[in-house]
Design a protein that fits this description.
Blueprint (H helix, E strand, L loop, with lengths): L1 H28 L4 H10 L4 H8 L17 H10 L6 H13 L13 H36 L4 H15 L2 H12 L23 H20 L3 H16 L2 H8 L4 H13 L1 H5 L1 H10 L3 H6 L5 H10 L3 H29 L5 H4 L2
Helix pairs in contact: 1-17, 6-9, 6-10, 6-14, 6-17, 8-9, 10-12, 11-12, 14-17, 16-17
Length: 356
């Protein structure tokens, strides 16, 4: 098992490198980079002070690079140097890699902070949404899936399946807007806050008050984030239990006179839950990093989803590549942890022998 883990860790290096290379090439070739945006702002209204900052009141001999008109070449060169574009692309990429090996992700082009500080600042929001929504999904899906498997074909099974499909079809952002209109100061009730993760007087509250305030703000975002997420896991749990219930060892256990509860939780549960429990790390990562942008925007939650989106829109390359590197690395590590959890849940699984 140790050699398997070592190989997986070594494989992370070319995987990370390949992802960074592909994204670097795509992003660098896309128009509208930071140099172009600075030039655009200098050519826009009220840009005289920005131009003077670079020219010092000098001449404005034209330069057509980056679509610049009326800007002298030395200004273009100074803007390129400010954003690191005075070096060839391969040198910039190599410098980025060497810095990443030291976990130095640089500073944002447009925010007065390092990339790592920005990520740490936005992390609590994304952790809150990802962790609690994942736990809620598992707490709802597993008991519901087991009940549906035990009562397969009954009215309860058919009814819950219809409700699950309907909820799954509702987009999370649309449900979020509906919840705001109904319960957050919209047309009807004002039971929940409209924005933020905590109240303005959060620091003045007692420990119990802080906990209540925290979950009071999270209530609506979690409902919007979770409502359609448990459908897949519920059906996976049901099908996994159904598959195990129909196997020979369950029939033998029943033939020996074991009651339904002991057969279900003493024999079926461990085997049926293998794929579900082992998939928790990767499920948490997917809930942590994916699909939160619209929820964050709707409920004014300043998290990693919004940070990444703004980095792409503003061509904030240090933030974009720094978050890409960290998210990819965490995803690969969580995938490895999922494989290890498989082995812990069922020692019969041997990934090392499967590779030969």
């Amino acid at each position: 098992m140790g050699s398997y883990v070592l190989r997986r860790l070594l494989l992370m290096i070319p995987t990370l490198l390949g992802i960074l290379v592909i994204n670097f090439v795509v992003v660098q070739s896309a128009p509208g980079g930071p140099v172009e945006q600075m030039i655009y702002r200098m050519q826009g209204h009220g840009a005289e002070s920005a131009t003077a900052r670079f020219t010092g009141g000098g001449s404005e001999t034209g330069d057509n690079r980056y679509g610049a008109r009326g800007l002298p070449p030395d200004i273009i060169q100074r803007i390129e140097a400010m954003y690191g574009f005075d070096k060839p692309a391969h040198e910039r990429f190599w410098e980025m890699l060497t810095n990443y090996l030291q976990f130095d992700f640089g500073e944002s082009f447009y925010r007065n902070a390092t990339v790592l500080d920005l990520i740490l600042e936005k992390m609590p929001v994304s952790i809150s949404l990802g962790l609690w929504s994942t736990l809620l999904i598992y707490l709802i899906s597993i008991p519901l899936g087991i009940r549906k498997a035990v009562t397969h074909g009954s009215r309860f099974d058919v009814t819950t399946s219809s409700v699950i499909v309907m909820l799954y079809a509702i987009p999370g952002f649309l449900l979020g807007i509906l919840l705001i209109v109904l319960f957050a100061g919209g047309t009807y009730f004002s039971w929940f806050p409209l924005r933020g993760l905590t109240s303005a007087n959060f620091d003045e509250l007692s420990l119990l008050g802080k906990i209540k305030d925290y979950f009071w703000h999270l209530a609506l975002p979690l409902v919007a984030y979770t409502i359609g997420g448990f459908a897949t896991l519920t059906m996976l749990t049901k099908n996994s239990f159904l598959d195990e219930i129909n196997k020979q060892y369950v029939i033998t256990a029943r033939a020996k006179g074991l009651d339904q509860k002991r057969v279900l939780y003493g024999h079926v549960f461990r085997n049926a839950m293998l794929i579900i429990i082992a998939g928790f790390p990767s499920a948490f990562v997917s809930m942590f990093f994916a699909g939160s942008l619209l929820i964050e925007v709707i409920f004014s939650l300043d998290g990693l989803g919004l940070l990444g989106f703004e980095a792409v829109v503003n061509r904030d390359y240090p933030v974009f590549f720094g978050t890409l590197f960290i998210f990819t690395l965490l995803g690969l590590v969580m995938k490895l942890i999922s494989d290890l959890v498989y082995v812990l849940v069922d020692p019969r699984i041997d990934f090392q022998s499967r590779e030969h």
